[in-house]
Amino acid sequence: MTRTTTSGGAAVAAAGAVVLPLALAQFIASYAGSNMNVAISTIASDLGTSVSGIQTTITLFTLTMAALMIPGSKLTDIWGRKFCFILGLVIYGSGALLASLAQGLALLTIGYSLLEGVGSALLIPPIYILITVVFADVKTRAKWFGVVSGAAGLGAAAGPLIGGLLTSSISWRASFWLQVLVVAAIAFLARRIDDPPLPAQRPQFDLYGAVLSAVGLFFVVFGVLQSGTYGWGSAKQDFSVFGTVLIPQGGISPVWVLVAIGAVFLVLFVVHIWLREKRGATPLVSVRLFQNRTSNLGLITQNIQWLVMQGSFFVISVFLQQERGFSAIQTGLMLLPATIGILLSSAMAQRMASRHPQRLLIRAGFTVTLVGLGLLLAFARVDSAIWTFWPGLFLMGFGLGAMLTASVNVVQSAWPEKVQGDISGVSRSVSNLGSSLGVAIAGSVLVGALARGNPPFITALVVVGGFAVVGWISAFLLPRPARAEELTTT
User: Fold this and answer.
1) CA distance linking residue 145 with residue 349, whole number of Å
2) Given this model, what pLDDT does residue 375 score?
3) Which of 66, 381, 415, 427 fits a 20 to 30 Å CA distance from 111?
4) Which residues contact 242 (CB under 8 A, 6 or more apart)?
């Protein structure tokens, strides 16, 4: 695809032909990560499993995306962006169809967590790569990044409402049917995308690096998930593998063992890509991508934004269903103020980006989000009026929406075009890792606080708020953006 140089209505139409399917794809992938929250109790009852079992499938979905996003991004340089995009849609749609037919947790996990996760890892990197390479003008690129990032935030925010409506009026399975239909429509629209030509010499795929990174990320998040069962300190029960007790009750929690295993694999991954690059071979991702201060801090803010969004939505959804007895549609409607907040701030993203520095928007977004969380903690109770939730939810949604686009811009614009494929994969992996950790940490804190007799939902929101503070601090450490001529030599 050539860069858009046409002016006027023709340019808008040409841009729309590219951006529309990309934005819809980002919307449906984000929707898939949040719509399950309002139907947790319903799905658990229907499939004869537990709330923690459904929590695990939600976490595994975003974890699969996080673990495979970097390899998926690298494949775009080998197979082509459009091919990976279409292939991802096919795998995703197949997973959604399989999940809609699930009669047990195992089939739901295969369809939703694995196939939809793999499909998302293939289709999401091309979205951001195509926008970066097609739109040369920074302001125009920021505009379309705003559309796609807004679609991501909207999908995550609207997921509970749409999912609740479908679950209450038809079935939780209807949410997966909707995904199949939307994915088919995206594939139809995507035929108009003209993929940029591949280079004559394509890079080799670093299979060993892909395995090391995926296994490392899996064990880190899987370890955090186990905290709900075994606790963070000493193991609350025996930890067994294939009937053999590896850690007896009272020993060190397996959480730390699993996280340490993941850390070892990630260290091996870094060493591997460093040695591979030193030999002149193409690594899965260059170690140079982690030597840019602006990019690194932007990635931290991205990770924490999604951690806060998915973690807080999960906590509030479970609270409304288990403590207040809300149905799926009632839970979705209760989260509507957050959806409105994200919609409004996403709609204003382009205007705000043209008037204010990106780092200022990220700082303001975290500040407003923290105020929203504070209002929820101050006023929302088991027996409080419904309106007490609204101010906090609206401000939280508005704050998150305000910084989603800004963080993407900070990270992508910190690098020249030749490494956009790699940084896009890292960026999306970090964001989805945040979503995985948000649900995993929030779920484990809920279980742990309940076991110790502490107020579980307040405790979980406080922990989520603590991560938001870390994001706020990271935003204030962001340096001033480099000049355009400096970026081309990075």
Assistant:
1) 9
2) 93
3) 427
4) none
